[in-house]
Amino acid sequence: MVDMETQAILNPLFILLAGAIIVVIVEQVGRRLKLPKLTDATAVVFFALTLISLYQLYLISKGQTPPVLTYSLKGLGGPFGVSFVVDGLSLFMAFLFAGLGLLVSIYSIRYMEKDLNLDRYYSLLMTLVAGMIGVVFAGDLFNLFVFWETMSISSYSLVAFRKYRWEPIEASFKYLTMSTVGSLMVLYAISFLYGLTGTLNIYELARILGASPIRSQLLAAYFLVACVVAGFGVTGAMVPFHFWLPDAHPAAPSGISAMLSGVVIKAGVYGIARVLFTVFNPNSFDFGTVLMVFGVITLTVANLAALLQRDIKRLLAYSSIVNIGYILSGLGIGAYVITHYQPPLSLSVAGLAVMGALFHIFNHAIGKGLLFLCAGCFIHEAKTRDISMLEGIGKHMAITGASFSIGLLGLAGVPPLSGFWSKLFIILAGYSITWDPFMIVVTTLIVLNSIFAATYYVWLMQRIMFRESKVKAKEAPASMILPIVILALLCVVVGLMPGWIIEAAGKAGLSLISYVGG
After folding, report:
1. Is pTM beyond 0.90 here?
2. I need a surface site. Which of 21, 63, 101, 410 has the fewest CB within 10 A?
3. What CA–CA distance (Å, rounded) separates 29 from 42?
């Protein structure tokens, strides 16, 4: 008999996977009853039910000490026993995935109404979110990899959804090719770890490797770290594995662009963070330096590339890569201080840095989700992605234009919007140890890149909002405006009252670094 706790862990996955099947049946019923929006409504309902089930899971976990829920299915035997572990970090990420999925499903009601096969679209969207939630709930590497591939296959298909055009097919194939190489690297690391330890349970791996001779086998250890960083870094759009993302965004429907930048690439960051911080303890391995270096390189390269873009979705794609750089840098600072310094200094600075990185995951999810949904409205009306042709369109679409401006200013880190706080925490953590020249140099480069990015955010806002209009446009339909307004309000409210997200990100960060054993 399945107890309440176990059922609560599985409910979000069951709801989404059931919805992915039911929506296909509902599409056929809707056609016969001449109810064209029945499919859309069904998808919205299943995403809403998923959020409710996650809230129920949060309430149950809140009553636990520590607030961690676990479930294991050992019937498979050997290394393939399936386990789920739900902690603060898992719930933090899952709420982001399901929340943005709900808003995108509402947005798609009108945005996708002229497309065919909407049952497949919503089915893939729900499978995508189920895969991402499965990744963050997985307590073993076998389970994580299965859900990772579920997420990946769904995202390839959604990028190629408008398959009657060449652009989505090319972009999806590039994404598929690069992601397959990344998945193989992750699979190799998983196989190596199983051969070394005889288990795939993440927390058992942490225990065994903590006392294992692999510490002395540094070449092998760092090769595995490289496989994990590169493998998950492809989906995370980390430089130099980022090339698929700028092509995928223009090709995909705008709602899917919001999902890709808002949450899918964050699953890659989650994979890096969970495996490295838990399995490869920063007390044993100095992967923080690697993450900081890759973070700064990602920031710099993507910022320079963004300057060359004239397609609004490509520019926003490079902006997403920039923000992955901030997140990697924050995680890297956290790991670096744990490796090189002693408690309590190391854990206090690491806590601030990791909390800032996770807070930025949230801020970028809502901010970039907002920008891509706004860009979709502009493209929906103007029928072009060319920034020069979109000049002044914000004058005709006041709500969308104002929301777009809020998203840009938020990601630029302008107070009192939400993006200000997460960047501030990462920078404060970086400057906390003033006698470490490496940290000072890295943090200064983060600050300079942040200023640099802010200049083209303001440039884009000025062209969209204040130039002479070149196209005639009207405000987008209400179902497209609603998710935009919700995200814009979140950017403002979180900026003015950041305490509740700081608390959530802090608990999520504590879930991550608590396995370090500082």
Report:
1. yes
2. 63
3. 12
